[in-house]
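Q: A small favour: would you put together sequence and structure tokens for a protein?
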Amino acid sequence: MFSAKSLFQEILDDDESFRLFCSIAASGESQGGWENGRISVLVPQSEQAMAPKIARHGADEDKHGRIFDALLKKRGLIPVPVPPETDYTMLLEREGIGLAHEKLKRDEPLTVRDLIVYLSHSRVTEQRASEQMEMLRRHFGDHPEVGRAVRMISGDEDNHLAYAHEELLRFAAAGHGRLIQRTLRECALAEIRVYRDVSLAVMAHMGRVLGWPRARSAALAAGIHAVYAYERLAGWHRMVSLRMPERRNALGGPATPAPEYA
């Protein structure tokens, strides 16, 4: 019988699967860093107080990308090209979720509606990231190779989620509640589809790298489909609720530096 812990341990123990995992993770984090960096530059004048927090969000994502690259370097590994079907960030953009890269490449100020789209995207995707990193922190927070990275990234993702809650509640209080709920629902339903598809693609690649028997790959795929069925039925609701976080102003101040790896 396999578990999330045993599955990740198997990926961690093999250089090629670890290389693929870190390459996918680093690419996604770097894309998130670029997106947040551009958004911070394009914040409208009326919402300039958000700009340093969005920049901090981007700096955190860039840092996470560097951490995954450093984990590879420590093992003497180099990144591999990310298979397009495993590119979570790109596939979400193709679904129309979040702000399009074409918009972000222009030097035109964003609108309040754009910021709500951005924050709704963050609320949904950071929920996923926070949950995944909490699982890794629970099982691998004390691991000698990846423990520090897991703990730092997990704390950052919790901050990002808290920030999205607080900012969306502020916009809701300003009269944007219906737009926020509609956008959150659209984001959540698209995200769970993309997450299913990316999970299936990643597990297929891992299965080939690690030589999994067909029965094991089929069982993992069935588990991914079962998670999607639950999320499509009811689980997506956890991604659209809003509550004031215990961590207030979670992205105030500078980003924490990445740990050093010898």
Q: What stands out?
A: The two ends are 36 Å apart (CA to CA). The helical segments are 4-13, 15-42, 51-74, 88-94, 101-105, 112-140, 147-210, 214-233. The CA atoms of residues 189 and 232 lie 7 Å apart. The longest helix spans residues 147-210.
